[in-house]
Prior knowledge:
By secondary structure, this protein is an alpha/beta fold. The chain has 13 helices and nine strands.
Amino acid sequence: MYQRHPSQPTGDPLDLNVVPKVGIIGVGTIAEALTMGLCAFDDQRAEILLSPRNDTLSRRLALRYPNVKVAADNQAVVDESEIVVLAVRPQVTEEVLGALRFRPDQQIVSLIATFSVQRLSSLVAPANEISRAIPLPPIAERQGPLALYTQSAEILRLFDGLGSLIRIEDETHLDLISAVTSLMGTYFGMMGTVDDWLIERGFKPEASRAYVGELFFNLASAARNRSAESFTRLSADYSTLGGLNEHAWRELQAAGWADQLQAALALILDRIHGRATFDTQLPGAVNPCVDQGKN
């Protein structure tokens, strides 16, 4: 069901004489990272036209890369592109796309997590070839996971090598991946908690952050290098029987840490499906902002 591709450029690059014209509507953090990834290593695998929504960011990218230009407006992006990447916020998607006129020969790549192909179909008609992707910020350096749902060989060639490409065959699984990406802040939050604990006990901040960062980096590298093995196996391999690692994980599990993590993922999935909002909390949870008297 899933196919994983290497993160390095393939040995069969696109013919630079026939590179596609790619337009990006909505230029924020992810669209910036995608643009940088497409242009990394002087690859120039596409002619890129950016919408002027974030004029400062779009023009900075255009100044940096010779194959990137800024359009006058969103309709100009559509008119001059063969592949249109949608990177607008879900809250304004219907408003933005409803004002645009697409062509039947265009391919659409949506980065909008909460919009299925079916939901997008009426908004981009008569264009009817729609792919979906979930890139993350590390794509700027052609690193990190890149989930792609597509039946298009051209879209596959365009995205291949921009990260660790994971092809998704069941579109509904993109929602699960979107939920998992919500843990990026949690990951760094856990590191921050460990960092605070060390600093409170006398560590200098620079020494603490260097150690914690290096520790978690190497653990993540081990997981990537041993991707054929389960994380349960890795946990066992890194935990001496009766040792400190086994003790810490046992106590966190007993305190419900693992169950709460899965409950949080389920809550985020409910939000993606429109069954919850940012104000929805897990049972018994205390809002840290309210608890600390913050707005």
